[in-house]
Sequence to fold (264 residues):
Amino acid sequence: MLDDFMVRAALAGLGVALAAAPLGCFVVWRRMAYFGEATAHAAILGVAIALAFSLPVLPAILAAALAMATAVSALSGRGYAMDTVLGVLAHTALAAGLVAVALLSDVRLDLMAFLFGDILAVNKADLGTIWGGTALVLAIVGWRWSALLTVTLNPDLARASGLDPRRESFALTLTLALVVAVAIKVVGILLIASLLVIPAAATRPLARTPEAMALGAAGIGSLAALGGLWAAFWLDTPTGPTIVCVASVLFLLTMLTGMISQRN
Fold:
């Protein structure tokens, strides 16, 4: 079954959608959309470092994403607004990564595949990486779900309950970096943040509990992945951007449904 490239692509899309769903909810709740984008932009710098020193790509991407998160934490609250810090670091990391890749003249690299994804080229090893990363992300989020919710809702209450907000934020950052690493093949570095934010935002008007929102985001993300894959096949369009477009259509439909239900 895995010899069919469309089956591998569908399984890869489902894996990334499931991993991104619960994290996307926290990104929406904490208003961290730009943080997810900054983490994703750091990935291209990780790719360049991995190729320059002949290192495995996945650990290098994780290291770059975690370095970005550490830099954001260190610079926030030092006279600049968070969105300013994120904007500077995100675009700096992306530009530095693109320059570093351009300097690797002796390395053949399909830059477009990293920027916009190449889900149709997913092989069995990539599939194992994606689903292994998804299992790890879901295990971490499931383990820390209550603590992450408490810290998100009220950091002071979390401290009173014996929770360390910095530790929980680090756990969230680690899982975000992991999702970025496994999602590159599916939607690419430039579109990863959209796969985190759009399914969660689409579910928000319809969900009544945090758990329902996470499950709804997983469903909408999976539908966007499969629908985008099918649409790209028939329309002969880039698969990663098509997946994001389908997710955006689903967001508009759920937003209209929520508005209609509120009026009624």
Q: What stands out?
A: Residues 5-191 form a domain with the ABC transporter involved in vitamin B12 uptake, BtuC fold (CATH 1.10.3470.10).
